Amino acid sequence: MNAPDPTYFRKGFGLKQDVEATLSADYSGRIVDLLRARDYQLTVGDVTVRMAHEFGFCYGVERAVEYAYQTRHKFPDRRVFLVGEIIHNPHVNQRLREMGIEILMPTDGVFDYSGITADDVVILPAFGVTISDFQTLREKGCVVVDTTCGSVLNVWKRVEAYARDGLTSLIHGKYYHEETRATASQVEKFPGGTYLVVRNMDEARDVTEYLAGRGDRSAFLAKYGKAASAHFDPDIHLARIGVANQTTMLARESLEIGEFVGAAMAAAKGEAYRATNFRTFDTICSATQDRQDAVNAMLLDPPDVMLVIGGYNSSNTISLAALCAEKVRTFHVEDALCIDPERRVIQARDAKSGERFEASNWLGTGPVTVGLTAGASTPNNKIGDAVARVFATRGIDLSTIA
Ligand code: SF4
Known about the structure:
This protein is of the alpha/beta class. About 40% of the residues lie in helices and about 20% in strands. It folds into three domains: about 140 residues, 4-hydroxy-3-methylbut-2-enyl diphosphate reductase, catalytic domain (Cobalt-precorrin-4 Transmethylase, domain 1, 3-Layer(aba) Sandwich); about 90 residues, Rossmann fold; about 130 residues, 3-Layer(aba) Sandwich (Cobalt-precorrin-4 Transmethylase, domain 1), CATH 3.40.1010. Helix 6 packs parallel to helix 7 and helix 8 runs parallel beside helix 11.
């Protein structure tokens, strides 16, 4: 049996107990504990906050953040770098910076590793990194702590299999998102491996139009140049398709895209052709699915407004906000500070347009029920801060509630 590689770690360092107290102090929260203890609902005065039963930190984020803390603990005297943000939450990233972890940020999607030496330690985020970034770092000889989430690795396996079998990976995702960049790069493991990223049903429709013979090659290439392999040619590479998705997209839309593209291929070339040249696999992660299911359950009895907490660049939070906005007036805030109790004003991101807006008197007057959920990268203490500000907007001080 080969000796373990002393420069590559993907299961932490067995130091959980050493970092547990710090993690808890940094991210757990009394108000969220209180909500859980009261069956996810808290009423004080005429304000009720109802919380979705699944929300906030997912297993992949918990693991990645814990491994980052373990890494700092393990290598107190070494330079420690992180490839991009560990997760899309400004507080968590700031906390890592305070611990002396330097976050490398890309320029036009490209990371500069020229300053990294064999004496350094580099943490890979939960989203994973591209194959070429991974190889560059391994060649440096530095210690690599890989926190790539197991659910992301599952998508990679799927995309790898598509490339091995000569199918173009059609990825439902955002082509510029770290996870999708890393996922798409997996096709490079096989000569001629090809990918195309579509963001939503509208973009999937461009693919189905092409399959139906109504596409324009130049227009297609112009639109998807950045979202496809450099050698991608729709005349060649839409002949065989395997669908996968970024783990944090809207699950319902991912399924629809898979079915829609498969049906278009069958309509264009027949069922028998589809049977051998089309595959689809739902690679939404279970944490994303659970959070979306919990919001759907809450919306069966809709609150007056929904508050969705999480980074504006957090894909899973954006998906949650989109779901909520279909049924209820929704405020996606990146942080508790977006809620100003004094002025009774909220600053939020519009779930449909993505535009920022400000609303005054957003809780109205009289009894109000606020539904609450949070993206997978939002820590409990920050969720609690937002809940406190909701109540404070109506002059209610939660610090006295036990
Ligand atoms: S959202 Fe899903 S894939 Fe991403 S880190 Fe969390 S569990 Fe893993």
